[in-house]
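user:
I keep going back and forth on a fold encoding question. Separate attempts, laid side by side, tell us more than any discussion would. Would you put together a sequence-and-structure record for a protein of your own picking? Write it directly below this note and I will take it from there.

assistant:
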Amino acid sequence: MKVCCLFLIAHLAYTGFAYAAYENPPGKKTPVTGHHLPADSSIAETFKTAHNPLPEIPDFANLRKYAYLNINRKGLQDNTPFKPSVQVGAIVHMFAGAGQDGFSAPHTAAEPSGWSKSFTLYRARVLVGGQLTPKASFFFETDIPSAIGGPNPDGTKNVKVSPIILDAQLQYNFSEAFQVIAGQQLVSNNRNGLQGAAGLMANDFSYFQYPYNLFAGSPLQGNFGRDLGINTRGFLANDKFEYRVGAFTGRNIDGKGPVRVVGRLAYSFLDPEKDFYYAGTNLGKGKTLTWGIGADAQGSYYNLSTDLFIDHPVTDKGSITFSGAFQYMTGGTDTLSKYSFAGLIPAQTVQFAELGYYFKAAKLQPWVKFENQHIAAKAAQTAGTAVESFNKFNSSTVWGGGINYFFNALGTNLRLSYIARTYNVAGESSNFDKKTYGQVWAQLQFFIF
């Protein structure tokens, strides 16, 4: 018995010597920056579950916190050779829905108040990521360019869709303060435009947060918010301060125009946010309060924004999530340059807000949202149309809400929602009448990566 005890004590001491100054294997995040783990540290808990060589001893992490065990500062993992790794996953959104024809086309729909129903495969993405070297990683993602199950212009059902490349990016981390991301990637100056599809709180992205960067025919010639270029990113002030600055192709009509420059600064007052794709809700895991500002510019176009995100437990039974943003954008008034956006992006302001509450025990999250796109175009931006009529015709408001049930957090969930959109519809004698049209979705998500 004494021999066994002595052997166990010796084993603990040896392991403590080697792991007290533990460094993660190359390519992994370092869970600690010093050599001592405080007894009440959440880092110690993470360390215990992820790197405990004696899992049958639940308090082993606490045994390593004492200075007398902190002797061997080299660590057992120093000589472990790096091995490249690959990770594969998927995001799928499918829904049963019904919507009034005027929801997306109030001015041209034959029966704007009529309801259409559908069963739709909305997103079907394949994700591939991997660690190439200790400092280099890649991410590749495909998607379907149009919803499967929806109607085609000729009246047939859309049943066969060829996938497209959505993301293809390489990231190299020189340090926490300086990282470079090259390739086709999600680009935006505001938070909602940089959220991941799997982490949304509402049923879908904002309508107006990046309305000119969605498709090849959009003014910025995007690909569902993606663009090609080189982005830089880094974290300072104990990872509280984040910056993103990049140069991208943007609108490209002859290869000789100005590049698109996008930048964002964000400060996290509570827990740092280090994921490339922001979360729309954390379901009460952690405490988040982040404020950001950003700019997006190319030629005569510019977009200035500010946003605020809060996700915080209210009690041990639930948590609140709030996301709000304000933007001003314009394509300028230069009508002579062929690189001008004057006739493509009118001056406007955009307001956006989402509010939800997560009931932990019930796994339910009701939410509401509001968005407003207020067009305030200049005469040079309306192509001869009366400014007042142009502004009313193109302005609209989106509002609604829903409830989410999380079978497995963001992995599998069901979302029920009703969203309404209000337009100014031209009536008799050049007057405009406010018309509202609705959309109902029952959406299923599964996500794994």
